[in-house]
Design a protein that fits this description.
globular, binds adenosine-5'-diphosphate, 5 domains, alpha/beta, binds zinc ion, 31% helix, 7-stranded parallel sheet, GIY-YIG endonuclease, Rossmann fold
C-alpha cells in the first residue's frame, strides 16, 4: 500500500522520548503552520500525542510513501529553542558519546523548555502599552502620555496610578503578556586591588596570545589562578566576546560566583543545578538575549546559548563531575573543546592536578602548558602521614589518632578552624551477624546496607532503598554488630571529645535541601562553626582564611577499589584537600590517616609532587594499556534474566574481537535493583574507529528488539564494580 503526498511540506523530527529504539527522525506533513528547524511540534505517534523536535524541513513535496504521513498537530514554540550550532552539537554528542539525539537535545535546554516538565512552565507577567488616545480629561491625558513616554509598564506598577483602570475601560491601553524576569540587585563592580605577579601575568598573556587555542594551566591551589581567569576574561569581554567559566560542583560555586560577580557585576549569569526551573530559564534567556556576557556555572552551563564565545575556562578540569553519568554521558570538557572550535574561542583547562589525559596532551604539544609554581603570599602547608597500623597497635582510637586529636585541640585553642574529610557517609557501613557472620545486604543489590543513625534506618547507597533498622540477623536472630565508620559516627565522636566546639557536617544527607550547601559553607566562613566535617564535597575549591588544620581520615580507602583510576583519584583528593589548609596567614597543617603508607599515590601527595606522580602513573597506564595510552569504552549488559545478559555480552565481545579490538571481560558486576550486570571493555588506539564501531553496535542493539538493556560509556572515568 502506498500513500501519496501532494504539494505538502514535510518535517523531519525526533520524538521526545529517550528510548533508543526511537532514536531516528520521523516524518510528518504540514501546510501553512509556522514550522521551523529548532522548534518543537505536537504530533501523533503510536496513537498518542507526543512532542517532537524539528530537525529538518522539505518544502513542497509530491511523492509516494510506503506508510501514511500524518499531519503536524500544532507548533509549540514561537521561536526556535535551539539554533543550528546547538542542533549540530547534539548530533555530534550523540555520535561521539553514543546516546540518543533526543537525550543530547534535552541535556542542552533548561528544564522549563523540556516537554515533560509541565509543572515548570515559564512564568508570565501582565504588561500594558498605549493603544489609542481616547482620553477625555487633562488628568487622563497626562497619565496616557506618561505611559507613552515609558513605552510599556508592568501592569502591577501601572495599576498603582490613579485613573489607570479608567484608561483601560476607555480602550486606551493594551494589556499583553511577557515572560517574567526577577528583578536583580545592582551589584557594583570592584576592580582588582592588587597587581598580578610575574607568573600570573605570563599566564594571562599566554591565554590571550598563544598560537595554540588550548592552554593547560597548572597551578597549585592558592597560586592565584582565579585572578588569572578574571584578568583574561576582562580582556576577552573588552573585545565584545563572551566568557564561560565552568566549575565542577555546586558546593564550589558560591565562592567563585562571588568573586566573578564582584569583578563583573550584573554582566554575570549563573547556572547550576541548585537553581529553580524558572531561575535557570531566566539565566538562559539573559545569555540568549545577550544581556549577560559572562557565565559561571556547572557542567550543563557548557550549553548556554552564546552568540560569540571568546573564552572558556574549566576550573579543576580533572574533576569527575564534568562528565554526566546517565542518559547522555557527555563530558563537559569535550563539549567545551568542540564549541570553542566552532566559535574560534580559546580554552583554559586549569587544575592543580591536571587529569592525565590533559597533561599528556600538553606534554605532546597539543596544548600549551603554563605553570604557576608559587602560592600567593603563602607557603604550602606541612603535610604529614599518620600510620594507622601503628595507631591501632598502640591501642589508640581507629577513628581519630592521638596526634590528630592533639592538633585539633591546638587549633581550637587558638580559635582556628578545622576541616575533617571522610569520604563515607552514614553511621556504619557494615553490619555483621555476630553468630553466623553474614553481612546484612540490600535485598535488591550486591551491596551491604549502611546504618544511618539519624533516622535509625538501613540505607542502600546503590539503589536508594531505605529500611527500618533491625537489631537481629534476619536468618539466625544473632545480634548485629557494626564495623567501620561514616560521617555520622565521626560527628558523634567529635562532639563527645570536643563538647565546646561547634560542628557542621556536610554530606549528601545534610545537603538535600536547595541552598543547603551555600548556607552551610557561609556559616563556616562566618566562623559560626569551628569544625567542618564531611565527604569529598568539602575537599576542593573552598577558600577559608581561618582554616589551619585539615584532617583526612581513611585517606587511602579509595585505593582498595578495583578501578584503574583509583591511584589518580586518591592523589587528586589528598592534594586538593591539602590545598585547603593555610590559605590565610597562619601556617597550615594537613594530617592524613592511612594504612598503606608506601603507596606512590600517597607518597607523592605527601610531597605535593604532581610531576613524579604523573611519571609513575603514566608508566603503569602504559604497561596496563589504559588511558591516556588507549581509548576505552565500557558496555554493560543489564537484565533480570542473567542468561540473556551474559549471552549478549559474549556475543558482542566476539563481534568486536573479530574487528581486531582488544576486549576485556566479560566481567560480572554487582547486582543493582535485582538486575544482573555484565560488562565488557573495549580498547582502541583510535578514538574515531572506536566511536564508529561502537555506534554500529548501538544501532544494531536498538533496532534488534532485545530486552537486555545496554549502557554504553565512552571514555569511562571510572570502572567500578
Ligand atoms: P587559586 O584560584 O589558584 O586557588 P586564588 O586566585 O583564589 O588562587 O588566589 C588565592 C588568594 O590570593 C586570593 O585571596 C586572591 O585574592 C589572592 N591573590 C591572588 N593573586 C594575587 C596577587 N597578585 N597579589 C595579591 N594577592 C593575590
Ligand atoms: Zn540496593
Amino acid at each position: 500500500m502506498m500513500y501519496m503526498v501532494n504539494f505538502m511540506n514535510l518535517v523531519y523530527c525526533y520524538i521526545e522520548n529517550n528510548t533508543s529504539a526511537l532514536d531516528q527522525t520521523y516524518i510528518y506533513q504540514f501546510k501553512n503552520e509556522p514550522v521551523e528547524i529548532g522548534k518543537r511540534v505536537l504530533v501523533n505517534f503510536n496513537h498518542r500525542e507526543c512532542v517532537a523536535f524539528v530537525d529538518g524541513i522539505e518544502w513542497n513535496v509530491s511523492r509516494a510513501f510506503p506508510y501514511e504521513i500524518k499531519p503536524v498537530l500544532n507548533v509549540l514554540d514561537e521561536k526556535p529553542i535551539l539554533n543550528k550550532e546547538m542542533i549540530d552539537l547534539a548530533k555530534w554528542i550523540s555520535r561521539t558519546s553514543i546516546s540518543t539525539v533526543i537525550s543530547a537535545l534535552q541535556a542542552m535546554v533548561p528544564p522549563a523548555l523540556k516537554p515533560k516538565s509541565n509543572d515548570s512552565r515559564i512564568k508570565m507577567e501582565k504588561w500594558v502599552r498605549p493603544l489609542a488616545n481616547h482620553t477625555k480629561t487633562a488628568k487622563q491625558r497626562m497619565l496616557y502620555e506618561l505611559l507613552a513616554e515609558k513605552k510599556e509598564m508592568k501592569r502591577s506598577e501601572w495599576l498603582k496610578q490613579s485613573l489607570s483602570r479608567k484608561l483601560e475601560e476607555l480602550g486606551c491601553v493594551e494589556i499583553f503578556e511577557k515572560e517574567s524576569r526577577t528583578s536583580e540587585k545592582i551589584i557594583e563592580k570592584k576592580p582588582c586591588s592588587f597587581v598580578l605577579n610575574e607568573e600570573q601575568k605570563y599566564a594571562v598573556e599566554r591565554i590571550l596570545h598563544s598560537p595554540k587555542d588550548v592552554i593547560a594551566l597548572k597551578g597549585v591551589t592558592g597560586s592565584g589562578k582565579t585572578e588569572v581567569y578574571l584578568h583574561a576574561a576582562e580582556e576577552v569581554l573588552k573585545q565584545g566576546r563572551e566568557v564561560l567559566i565552568l566549575v565542577p560542583e555546586i558546593s564550589l560555586t558560591p565562592m567563585m560566583v562571588k568573586r566573578v560577580q564582584e569583578r563583573f557585576g550584573n554582566d554575570v549569569a549563573i547556572y547550576h543545578s541548585g537553581l529553580s526551573a524558572q531561575q535557570k530559564y531566566e539565566q538562559y534567556q539573559s545569555v540568549r538575549s545577550q544581556d549577560k556576557c559572562i557565565v559561571v556555572g556547572t557542567r550543563s552551563a557548557v550549553f548556554m546559548p552564546f552568540s560569540n564565545l571568546g573564552l572558556i575556562i574549566l576550573d579543576e578540569e580533572h574533576d569527575l563531575s564534568y562528565k554526566q553519568d546517565q542518559n547522555c554521558r557527555y563530558h563537559a570538557r569535550d563539549v567545551a573543546l568542540h564549541r570553542a572550535q566552532t566559535h574560534h574561542a580559546r580554552v583554559v583547562l586549569a587544575s592543580a592536578t591536571p587529569s592525565l589525559d590533559t597533561m599528556a596532551r600538553a606534554l605532546k604539544g597539543v596544548y600549551e602548558l603554563v605553570e604557576i609554581k608559587h602560592r600567593v603570599n603563602q607557603s604550602l602547608p606541612e603535610v604529614k602521614l599518620i600510620d594507622m597500623n601503628e595507631v591501632i597497635r598502640q591501642k589508640q582510637s581507629y577513628i581519630l589518632s592521638d596526634e590528630m586529636l592533639q592538633e585539633m585541640r591546638k587549633a581550637l585553642d587558638r580559635h582556628h578552624q578545622i576541616i575533617l574529610l571522610l569520604n563515607r557517609r552514614g553511621y556504619q557501613p557494615i553490619l555483621r551477624c555476630s553468630q553466623c557472620g553474614k553481612v546484612l545486604m540490600c535485598p535488591h543489590c550486591d551491596k551491604p546496607l549502611v546504618l544511618h543513625k539519624e533516622k535509625n534506618t538501613l540505607n542502600c547507597h546503590l539503589c536508594g532503598t531505605v529500611l527500618k533498622r533491625i537489631y537481629a540477623c534476619p536468618q539466625c536472630q544473632g545480634k548485629l554488630s557494626g564495623s567501620g565508620f561514616g560521617t555520622q559516627m565521626l560527628e558523634e565522636k567529635v562532639a563527645r571529645l570536643f563538647p565546646n566546639a561547634r560542628l557542621i557536617r556536610m554530606d549528601a544527607d545534610t545537603t538535600t535541601r536547595k541552598d543547603a550547601h551555600e548556607k552551610l559553607l557561609k556559616a563556616f566562613e562566618d566562623h559560626e562553626a569551628d569544625i567542618l566535617l564531611g565527604t569529598q564535597m568539602i575537599s576542593k575549591g573552598l577558600d577559608f582564611e581561618n582554616v589551619t588544620l585539615v584532617g583526612i581520615l581513611q585517606g587511602d580507602a579509595m585505593l582498595a577499589r578495583s578501578d584503574y583510576r583509583s591511584a589518580e583519584l586518591t592523589f587528586d583528593l589528598l592534594t586538593q584537600a591539602g590545598g585547603r589548609s593555610g590559605r590565610g596567614h597562619s601556617d597550615g597543617k594537613v594530617l592524613i590517616q592511612v594504612y598503606d603508607k608506601k603507596h606512590y599515590a600517597i607518597q607523592c601527595a605527601l610531597k605535593q609532587d604532581y610531576d613524579s606522580f604523573f611519571r609513575h602513573e603514566m608508566q603503569y597506564r602504559h604497561l596496563a594499556g589504559y588511558p591516556p595510552y588507549t581509548y576505552l569504552c565500557a558496555l554493560t549488559f543489564i537484565s533480570k534474566n542473567e542468561e540473556m545478559a551474559l549471552d549478549e555480552a559474549n556475543h558482542v565481545m566476539m563481534l568486536l574481537k573479530e574487528k581486531d579490538f582488544k576486549v576485556l571481560g566479560v566481567s560480572e558486576l554487582l547486582k543493582i535493583q535485582d538486575e544482573k550486570r555484565y560488562r565488557i571493555c573495549v580498547k582502541s588506539k583510535s578514538l574515531e574507529l572506536l566511536q564508529k564501531e561502537i555506534y554500529d553496535v548501538y544501532q544494531h542493539h536498538r533496532t534488534s528488539k532485545s530486552r537486555v538493556k545496554l549502557h554504553i560509556d565512552m571514555n569511562p572515568l571510572t570502572l567500578d564494580d
